[in-house]
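stuck on this chain:
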Amino acid sequence: MIGINTIKFIRSLRLKKNRRLDKKVILEGFRLICESINAGIKIDYIIVIENFESDLLNQKQFRNQSIKYCSKNNFHKISDTKNSQGIIAVADIKKYSNQSLDEIKNNNLVILDGIQDPGNLGTIMRTSVWYGVNSIALTHNTVDPFNLKCMRSAMGAHFYLNNIIQDDYLNIINYLKNNYKNIYVADMQGENLNKIKSNGNWALILGSEAHGIKSDFKQFKQITIKKFGQLESLNVSVASGIVMNHLRNNS
C-alpha cells in the first residue's frame, strides 16, 4: 500500500509549478495510461485501487511496470475525477523541458495562441498527432499543456509529439518568418480555406474563441472555413481538424 508521502507528492502534481519543478505528470484512466505507454513515455509507477480488476493488469502494456496498491479512501485523495476507473500513473516529462523552437526543423507546425480551455487544447493536440504533426508551439497565455484535464482530453497524444514548446509570441513570430513560407492564421475574416494549396510544409496558427488571435499574428495569411449555417463561430478544436485535414491533403 502507498504511504502518506506518495499521496502528498501525487496531490502536489495538480499544480503547474510542481509539475514543472519535478518534471512529472499524473495520468488517470486505463486507456490514457495504455496509450501513453504505447507512445513510449517513461512511467515511474502505477497506482491502482485495492479491488482493481487484475485481468487488466495482465495486458502487455503493464509488464515490467511498477504497480502499487492503494486503499479506497486514499485513492479518492489522489484522484482528480468524479468517476475514477481506479488507476493512476506518474509519468516523466523531462524530455519536454527546456525545448526550443530551433528543434522543430521546419516540419508541419501548429501554434496555439491564448487557448484557455484545457479540453480544447487536449483535443487539438490529439488531432495534430492524427494528422502527422509532431510539434506544437504555445504562447505563454495558453493553458498549461500538462494540465490534468488537458492530459485526459489528449488521450496520450502528448507523448507522440517530439516538441511541446511554450514561448513568447514575438519569438514564435520571428521563428516563423525565418523558417516557413506557408504560414496560415485561422480567422473569421480570412480567405476561403478551399482555395488554399500549400507547397511544402506549413505552420497553422489557432487562437482563442473568446479573444481571437493576437493582431501581430495577422500579418500572415488569414484563412477561414466557409460557413453555411447561422452560428457565429466554430469551436476551435473542431476548426483545427477541418483546417489540418485540408492542409494535409493539399500540400
